[in-house]
Amino acid sequence: MRRETVLAGLMAAAVGVGACERGPEPTPTSRELLEEGVFLTLDGGSVTLSGGSGVGEGNVRHELLMTAEGDLDFNSGTDAAAVLVAARGRERFLTLHALLRDGGEPVDVSARLIGDRIAVRRMAIEEGLIRLDVRIRRPGDPITVPPSVDIVQHFVLTNRGVIPIRLTDVVEEGTRGTAAADGAGDGAAAGVPALHTHEWELESFDVGEWTADLRGVEPVTLRFLAEAFDEADVTGQVSGFAGCNQVFGRFRATASEALRFYGLATTRRSCRGRGAEVEQRLREALGSVRAFQLSGDRLALALIDGAIRFRAGGRLVPITPESSDSEEKGDE
Question: What is the DSSP string of 136-161?
Fold first, then answer.
């Protein structure tokens, strides 16, 4: 995936009155600013923290658990992410928040429930993605048993808010073992790309009287990550690069070559030029796709008045990141 990484430093603060006499005021860290911040709540309201905690509607108490700095919209370097713990009586749940800079202050633009029986051990913003190292309970464990299974989760800020994603990587043909190259376990014949086995690179795109001009545009790609199979259906996540932003969503494909995309969302980079035009047209077109056709190493997505044509690139490999061995942990 084509992403930028911008590591944020300390956030700016005003120098107090009389600085010449008393010396410069210490610059607050992102955490210190967020401890006095305003956060969205899942019911559509907000809560203002003081010293890292606050009480919202319904007498729900919110506490700031963990923060991270980085670039979430690919346009600035001082965005932030935060995990809050909300509690009322014995009820307790965790929320993930994305905060963008607006006039110098971090503004919460999205809140998402991430669980009620988990412990967050570490969080970071890496190449525009929010990474959470969390500890969960085993299936069937009673609520009184502490979380004991370490996993890594990734989230991305899109025009639809913060959404969870699964990562994939691309390996060029001939660089992996025989079993993987033969498509072992995915139902694909050796050397014949299936919808979900390869990254697909855009070759041409026509809709109505418009034809995509791809000169100077970074390669546009799609990846289908299959999650569930039966005799007639494949469902899962779709991701890719649309010309300027990353695109994410879900898909359902059938043996009769029907294909639908659902819940498409993009990251929030500001776009201009040919890449922006291709992206806008592609987003609109994907929503109207109803069928696909595979022929050798070519994939065609059918539109009412056009088609989107791809060629097969490298094979897809799911990424399963290991949890960090860092001793830095949040409150559990």
Answer: EPPTT--TTSPP-EEEEEEEEEETTE
Q: What is the pLDDT of residue 168?
A: 85
Residue type, 290: R
Phi and psi based region of residue 214 (left: phi greater than 0; alpha: psi -120 to 50; beta: remaining): alpha
Cα dist from 292 to 111, 204, 205, 241, whole Å:
35, 15, 14, 19
Place of tokens 């932003």: 245
Q: Which residues contact 44 (CB under 8 A, 6 or more apart)?
A: none
Q: Encoding tokens for residue 247?
A: 């695109």
CA R_g for the chain: 23
- CA 183, CA 173: separation in Å to the nearest integer? 11
Residue 239: count other Cβ atoms within 10 Å of its Cβ: 20
**Could you give the residue ranges of the DSSP H alpha helices within 124-246?**
178-181
Q: Per this entry, what is the length of the chain?
A: 332
Cross-sheet strand order for the sheet of 118-126? 118-126, 129-136, 149-158, 161-165
**8 A C-beta contact, residue 201 and residue 221:** yes
User: Distance between CA 284 and CA 268 in Å, rounded?
Assistant: 17
Domain boundaries, the chain: 19-165, 168-318
pLDDT at 169: 86
The pLDDT score that the predictor gives to residue 15 is 29
pLDDT for the residue numbered 298: 96
**Residue 327 has what pLDDT?**
40
The whole-angstrom separation of Cα 321 and Cα 117 is 21
CATH of domain 168-318: 2.40.128.270
DSSP-based helix, strand, coil % in the chain, nearest 5? 10, 50, 40
Mean pLDDT per 10-residue interval, the chain, length 332 residues: 34 32 54 95 95 94 96 86 94 95 85 92 95 92 87 95 91 48 41 84 94 93 88 88 95 92 94 91 94 95 95 86 44 38
pTM for the model:
0.79
- Write out 261-297 in H/E/C secondary structure: EEEEEECCCCCCHHHHHHHHHHHHHHCCCCEEEEECC
